[in-house]
Design brief:
Layout: E1 18-21, H1 22-36, E2 40-44, H2 60-64, E3 69-71, H3 76-88, E4 92-96, H4 107-114, H5 117-120, E5 130-135, H6 150-154, E6 160-162, H7 167-179, E7 184-189, E8 196-199, H8 201-209, E9 221-224, E10 229-233, H9 237-250, E11 255-259, E12 262-264, H10 268-278, E13 281-288, H11 293-305, E14 314-318, H12 329-332, H13 336-344
Parallel strand pairs: 2-3, 2-4, 4-5, 5-7, 6-7, 10-11, 10-13, 13-14
Antiparallel strand pairs: 1-8, 6-12, 9-11
Helix pairs in contact: 1-7, 3-4, 7-8, 9-13, 10-11
Length: 350
């Protein structure tokens, strides 16, 4: 499913819209899913009475009880193994890994079992589970707290991998992820948790319940229309790409911004339609560039849009080093200046 119309902000006329944070939208999505389906459970480290490190699960234990939202030991492999068993037996577990790199002890379970059990059983055993991973940098954290690990999961067949960038998508995509019969890795950009949008949550609930809009999974969206070049981003890099496009507009250059949203499945149609219109593209991501999701996007665009390209597709990514100390992360992360430098290098003179 594709969504080629430009994203529009705000809510319908007459709605009761109010500022909502990214974290609040996730919290509302979890609460609404748990209210609608008694098989939905939420568990992980400190997600119970504390409400999680980022307060995404705030109030869920009080509302639904300790049997439905509860704390676990500091044992990610154990958390994942328990979720697998629950999903195999009719529950819909949602687990939080607390920080991106904390998920690595559970990675073997994800690759060997979460991604493979439905295929191994010829679809007789499904795993309707969501692995929530606060990920990426921009919060002044240190290594093991700011990894962008999406490439590991995207490279593993059998997993759906999502990375919302807006408050609206945070709600709708998490609801969609929980409703899927398949395992989902749900990547939540930490630096966007306290970003806000003016939204009507009741309207979003109706949108999901009535399926009145295009689904987000497998669907990219045009976050900003443009004509001169396409910036392709997902998760925490989308606001940076939009800021770069706004800065470029002041210099007379029109940049289109594509929010990928769904890494797996990937929306080739929307991405490539944009690149064919503009003839130039830059892919932006926080993760190191070598063997990355950004590399895959570049390859897909080059293969499908070769005869429409006026210049090679470029990347602006994190560097191929371990995540740096907080004082250095601004040099590591993609920035407006780095993106505009890449745009300037797109062979405009030719």
């Amino acid at each position: 499913m594709t969504q080629t119309a430009e994203r529009t902000a705000g809510s319908a006329p007459g709605s009761t819209a109010a500022p909502v944070t990214f974290a609040k939208a996730l919290n509302a999505a979890l609460a609404d899913a748990m209210e609608a389906d008694a098989s939905v459970l939420m568990f992980g480290e400190d997600v119970g009475p504390l409400g999680g490190v980022f307060r995404v699960t705030d109030g869920l234990t009080a509302r639904f009880g300790e049997e439905r939202c509860f704390d676990t030991p500091l044992a990610e492999a154990g958390i994942m193994g328990m979720a697998i068993g629950m999903a195999m037996n009719g529950m819909r577990p949602v687990v939080e890994m607390q920080f991106d790199a904390f998920a690595y002890p559970a990675f073997e379970q994800v690759v060997s079992h979460v991604a493979k059990i439905p295929n191994r059983t010829k679809g007789k055993v499904l795993l309707p589970m969501v692995i929530r991973i606060p990920y990426a940098g921009g919060i002044g954290g240190v290594e093991h707290h700011c990894d962008s690990s999406e490439s590991y999961y995207a490279h593993t067949p059998g997993l759906t991998v999502l990375a919302p960038a807006t408050v609206r998508d945070a709600y709708l995509m998490l609801r969609e992820a929980i409703a899927l019969p398949d395992p989902v890795v749900f990547l939540e950009p930490k630096k966007l948790y306290w970003s806000k949008e003016k939204l009507d949550l009741d309207e979003l609930r109706r949108t999901f319940d009535e399926q009145s809009g295009p689904r987000s999974i497998g669907s990219a969206v045009i976050a900003r229309a443009g004509t001169d070049a396409t910036l392709i981003a997902y998760g925490p890099s989308v606001p940076t790409a939009l800021a770069a496009a706004a800065a470029a507009a002041e210099e007379g250059r029109s940049l289109e911004v594509i929010d990928v949203r769904s890494i797996v499945p990937f929306d080739d149609e929307t991405v490539c339609a944009s690149v064919r219109r503009t003839g130039r593209a830059v892919v932006i991501a926080e993760a190191p560039g070598f063997a990355s999701v950004a590399s895959e996007i570049v390859a897909r665009v080059q293969e499908r849009c070769f005869h429409s390209l006026a210049a090679p597709v470029l990347r602006v990514t994190g560097f191929d080093i371990p995540y740096p100390s907080p004082k250095l992360e601004s040099y590591y992360l993609p920035s407006v200046d780095r993106i505009l430098d890449a745009v300037d290098a797109l062979q405009w003179e030719d």
